[in-house]
Prior knowledge:
Number of strands: 15
Strand content: 25-35%
Radius of gyration: 20 Å
Largest sheet: 7 strands, mixed
Oligomer: single chain
Structural class: alpha/beta
Distance between the termini: 12 Å
Amino acid sequence: MKALLSKAVGGPETLVLDEMPSPEARPGWAVVSVKAVGVNFPDTLIIEDKYQFKPARPFSPGGEISGVVKSVGEGVTHVKPGDRVLGNTGWGGMAEELALEAHRLVKIPDSMPFDDAAAFIMTYGTSWHALKDRANLKPGQTMLVLGAAGGVGLAAVELGKAMGARVIAACSSQEKVDLCISRGADAGVVYGRGPFDRDGQKALAGLFKEACGPDGADVIYDAIGDAYAEPALRSIAWEGKYLVVGFAAGEIPKIPLNLALLKGCEIVGVFWGAWVTKNPERHQVSVAELMQMYADGKIKPYVSERFTLANASAAITHLASRKAMGKVVVMIE
C-alpha cells in the first residue's frame, strides 16, 4: 500500500510517498481501507515534532479518516468488514490502509459522503466539547469566535447557532467573515495581522467590544492565540468564559492575569483528545448527538478543497498558510 511518510523532522516538503506493508488487525483492532482524510492544524505540528504527541518515525500524518472496514481482530464486535466508518486516529491517516483500535471507529450512514465523514469528528468533536462541556453555552448568550473560518472555528459557529447563541465571527478577511455569516454567524469582524503594538492591541480590543456589544462576549472561543488573545480577553463579559482551544496564529500568548481578576472571568482549557481518552462513555454520547445534528441538517462540514494522496503534502502546506477556509480533505482512491 502507499502512504505519505514523515521520515525526518521538517515541514510538508520533507514528506515522501512510499510503499509500506499492508497492516494486519490484531486483537481489539481493525484495518480500514481509507477513502478520505481530514487535514487539521495538528498535522502541521506533528511532522515538525511540535505537537503534544511525537510518534516514532516513519509515520503518516492525518488524524481523522473515513473509509470501509477491511478486517477486524479478535474481540471486535461493534464493526465488521464492509462497514462504512469514520475514525479519530491521532496520526497515520494519510495511507491507503490503516490499522487502529476499533473503539476509535464510528459507523456512518450510507447518506454521509466520505469527504464529509473525514471532515467531521475532530472539528465538531472539539467544538462540541468546548461549548457544551467546558463553556456550558446557553441560548441567548453572545459568543466571539476567533479564527472562525477555520475548521474548528466554523464548527463552533454552526454549533453555537444550533445551541441558540448570538455568534460573532472574527476572521482575517471579509471573505472569511462572509463564509461564516453564510453558515449562521450573526455578525463578523475583520482583524489585522499581528504583531500589534500597545495602540494596536487597544484598537483590536475596541473592534471586538463593538462587535459583541456593551456587555461583551459571554464566551470567547480562541483557536488562534498569539497577539489576538489579550485584546479578545479585554472584550469578555463579566463572569465570561475564555476557551483556550489552540494557537494556529503561531505563538502561545502570555495573558496578564489581572484581566481575569478584573473581569471575574474563567480561562478554560479545551483538550478534546485527552478528554475523549478519559471519558469514553461521554464521548460516545457526544458522537451520537453530533451525528443526529448532521442527520437533521443543523451541521455539515464545509469542505473547501480536496487533494489526492500523491499531493497531500500540498494540502498540509495550504493549511499552514492560514488561507484555507473550512476543511481541507485528502481523497484516496
